[in-house]
Each structure stands twice: as C-alpha cells, then as structure tokens.
Write a sequence for this structure.
C-alpha cells in the first residue's frame, strides 16, 4: 500500500547511512539454523518464509522451516543454488501447478522456480510495472500491477497483467484503475481489491470486461469461503482514511456487498494479513498500526484476531505483538504462523501457535517476512 511504502521510505532514509552495507549483504542466520548448509535438499516439506528484504536495498531471502523435523534453513535459495543470489525484493510468492512463482520489486519481475527453489527460466520483466500479487487459472497467471505512474497518483493506469505460462510472457493488460492488490478467482470471474478506491473490481475472464462492487473503504486482500463467497479486508490509509475497518463479505453469485464486520486497525501491511484455516471455519486477521516506537523507528504494534465464519464474531488470538507483519495458517497442521519484523534492516521472526493460541515455537528468519507458502 502507498501508506506503508511511504513509511518504509521514511525509515530507510533515516537509517541509510548506517545500514546500507549491512542491508545489501545481510541474510539472517540464527541459532535455530540447523539444516546443513550447502547440501542440496531433495525433501520439499516445509514452510517457506518469503522475506522481503529492505526496499530498494536488497536483502531478500527465503527461510525454510521443516515443520515435520523441526529444522530451519536460512538463506535457503542460496543453499539450493550455490553462487546465486536473490536481487529483487520479494513482493509475493506462491505455488501454482507444481511451480513456485515469485513477483519481485526493484527489479519488477516474475521469477519461476521448481518446488526445490531452482530457477526454471529467465525472469520476465516486460509488461510488469510494480507487480503486487497474482492468482492462477489454467495456463495463465493474473498479476495485479500498480503501473508506471508510481505511488503518488490515483492509480488511473493500474492494471491486471495476463501472463501466459506456456509462452512465458505478458500477453495482455486489463486496465483496472484504483491500484489492484489482492486477487481471487471464483468461477470465471477475477476479483481484485483496490487500495486507492473503495471498490472491489470484478473482471470477466472471457471478455475481460470490468465491473465494480462498492464497499465502505479501500481494501487490500481477499479470502474465499467454503461457499465461494469472499471476505475482503477493509483498511484505512493516509490517502484514503476511513473508520469502516474490518471485513467485508461479498456475495459472488450476485456480486454485491452482503455484510461488514467491524474490527479496529486492520493492518495496512502488504504482507499476508488475512489467512484461513484448512476447513475455512476460521479467518485470522492482522490488526496492527504503525507506531513510532523510538525517534525515527516505526514498528507495527497490534494483535491477531480469529473470526469465526459461522458466528461471524471476532476473538483475540494473539495480543501485544510488536513488529507484526502478517499471519498465515499451515494447511497441513492448522498451526498459525505470525510474522514479525521490528526493523527493515534486521532479522525478523516467525512465532508459531497451535490452533488454541498457545505459542510453542519462534524461529529467526530474514529481513521483513511477509509471506509464507507451505509444501509437503
């Protein structure tokens, strides 16, 4: 989101002179880092934490946590690919059709890996300007992009890039003003949350016609429920302030807003702030705001809330969190992973809770952990 990007720019400029060399070369190592470095790992089982790094200064990395054997490997990409380095800041990544696709910023690109995190081809850059997120259907990825207008406009030229997996190129751009961020596909429709307009965009995947659903505030990410309807985070940003924060419930049959559920301070992080458990009965939501902890040092403070999709009520799950960036549920164990990063130049952490809210493990990871993907 523009709000967080500006805060990152502020923090980076304040710390630039002290942190430049560290950030460019840093990858977190920890006492928990107990997989053997330098040995190619054939086993794919694990939680893969995608660490953003420091905006425009590098430091992106992947941490593998083998949750079956309780082993951590930081610098996992380098471990699997000796002599190679991740140069882009990792904006988002996920597994789709037995490949891992990562979108990077600075440089803006899409990189394809196999399930062992080995690159499978050259990075694609043409047609991607500030890519944010993607979803896949068939032989295509649909990638939300802010476009080349940057962050200080109304996002009039933002778009969805239609990327052909077979041809390895962006074949079309669907103009979607308003800064598309999180995406979801239901049936033959692509839904896009908009970070600069209080609407959900609805794109017909055959005709590429775009329609809109009005909602009370701007939104960042979407989560599908077991009936094929969508929850959307409602957030308040510097450029689009709103008191209507919480979750919006979108009926995808009629494409209309059906209900809203209030929760103060939904995070504006561009990490994984909304996640569901395996049976989609509980949504975990990150509610945190930026606080100037010490002069010039901004951190996110707040809590993780659990939303029961039957009772439609929130319950606090984990509180008193400093540097909270996001939350993700392990679909194989239902454990809840909370991503923490109190500094844009230092190692972050992931705290792991059981479904009852008991903290049982904390691991050290890379700079600014924002997304996690799970393989087994």
């Amino acid at each position: 989101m523009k709000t967080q990007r500006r805060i990152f720019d502020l923090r980076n400029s304040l710390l630039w002179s002290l942190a430049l060399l560290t950030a460019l070369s840093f990858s977190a190592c920890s006492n928990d880092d107990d997989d053997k470095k330098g040995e190619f790992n054939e086993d794919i089982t694990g939680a893969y934490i995608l660490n953003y790094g420091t905006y425009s200064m590098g430091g992106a990395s992947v941490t593998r946590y083998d949750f079956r054997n309780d082993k951590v490997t930081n610098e996992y990409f380098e471990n699997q690919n000796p002599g190679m380095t991740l140069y882009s800041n990792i904006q988002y990544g996920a597994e789709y059709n037995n490949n891992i696709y990562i979108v990077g910023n600075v440089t803006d690109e899409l990189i394809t890996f196999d399930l062992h995190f080995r690159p499978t081809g050259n990075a694609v850059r043409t047609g991607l300007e500030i890519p944010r997120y993607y979803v896949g259907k068939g032989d295509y990825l649909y990638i939300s992009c802010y476009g080349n207008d940057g962050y200080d406009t109304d996002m009039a030229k933002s778009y969805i890039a239609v990327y052909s997996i077979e041809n390895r190129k962006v074949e079309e751009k669907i103009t979607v003003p308003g800064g598309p961020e999180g995406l979801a596909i239901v049936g033959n429709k692509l839904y896009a949350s908009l970070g600069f307009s209080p609407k959900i965009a609805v794109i017909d995947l055959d005709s590429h016609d775009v329609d809109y659903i009005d909602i009370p505030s701007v939104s960042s990410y979407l989560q599908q429920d077991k009936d094929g309807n969508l929850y959307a985070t409602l957030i308040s940003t510097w450029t689009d302030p709103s008191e209507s924060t919480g979750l919006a419930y979108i009926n995808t049959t009629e494409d209309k807003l059906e209900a809203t559920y209030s929760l103060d301070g939904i995070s504006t992080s561009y990490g994984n702030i909304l996640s569901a458990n395996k049976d989609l009965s509980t949504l975990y939501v990150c509610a945190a705001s930026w606080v100037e902890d010490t002069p010039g040092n901004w951190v996110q403070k707040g809590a993780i809330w659990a939303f029961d999709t039957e009772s439609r009520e929130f319950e606090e799950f984990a509180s008193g969190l400093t540097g909270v960036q996001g939350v993700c549920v392990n679909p194989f164990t239902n454990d809840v992973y909370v991503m923490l990063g109190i500094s844009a130049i230092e190692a972050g952490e992931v705290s792991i809770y059981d479904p009852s809210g008991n903290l049982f493990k904390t691991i050290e990871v890379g700079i600014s952990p924002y997304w996690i993907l799970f393989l087994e």
In short: Residues 178 and 196 are 5 Å apart (CA to CA). Helices lie at 2-25, 76-80. Confidence is low (pLDDT under 50) at residues 1-31. The longest strand covers residues 282-294.
